[in-house]
Fold:
Amino acid sequence: MTFPTLASDFYAFESQLAEHEQRELVRLRTFLETEVKPVVNDYWDRAEFPRQILPGLHAQQVFGNLWEETKAGDFSAVYSGWTALELARVDASVATYVGVQNGLAMGSIGVAGSPEQRAEWLPKLKTGEVIGAFGLTEPLSGSDSAQGLRTTATRDGDHWVLNGAKRWIGNATWSDITIIWAKSTEDGQVKGFIVPTSTPGYTATKIERKQALRIVQNADIVLEDVRVPESHRLQNANSFRDTAAVLRLTRAEVAWAAVGTAIGAYEAAVDYATRREQFGKPIASHQLVQDLLSRSLGNITASIALCTRVSQMLDQGVQRDEHASLAKAFATTAMRETVALCREALGGNGIVLDYDVARFHADAEALYSYEGTREMNSLIVGRAITGVGAFV
Structure:
């Protein structure tokens, strides 16, 4: 069984992909619909990750396409965006796992690693032999990570000693390595380190009682005199500019995932509206319900257009921080409105997990905040508009 082009792609943007990209996208869609969608509500409810899906997930063409060491074909950044959309359309937590593994962990090594580090780690991360995490955010440092990192790295011969704490680190309860970003006590610059999670002094504790992205295994990390060799320092990560280069790659894909989250809620609402009857007929025939659905589709279509263009700019080598930031800020804001409209279309059933919309509605709040809040991304765009920074 295969699943056709999405009806929610109202302007047929998918048709602009190359033929081989369209084939791979349908293969991914089929895998997600048959292997992932049937189990995600149960795992979301239990706040556990369905690890049995990982072999099939890593067999899809969603990992490593940016890097020569792992590239399996000629795939565009627009295709990568569509894979994020497809993943989030079924479940935003699974999309987040891929974003952390493929974008943040592999991206850190791909952007800032030496040729030897790339050759050692990227193939293992692509296949899922090694699970990665990305440790930037801290208990007291989020939006101000450029200046506010408190985790330190101190040179000691041919090793570095890391001390500090990280928070909200996805995959970190079961990752094999975590990319830790820390401020050097020598020059005050932010540097990156590949830290095996078995290293003495490294502990990760699952964050409990989350009400969004419950499948994602977020952790609090404590680093107490964690020693890593110089060979595990990302050799081309010399300041926060290099960290920002990784985030630039992933921020636009979060925008794509936001579109997918909105589509997941929208498709569930359309399905519900055509089956649910009130006053002797399906609620899809009521004008106010049709208004909710058409407004949702408008948000989705505008967001796909914006995301398509920003990914084309990445392919062309002209995408800048403000381009990715505008896409992320707009798409997540539109997503937040859309999931609320779709929840409204379901009435009371909109808060019941069985109808899917409640999961998308809750998960949207996390996507709205991570990879830069709307406010921070708006300030990045505002600086580009005016030439004046207004961050503090």
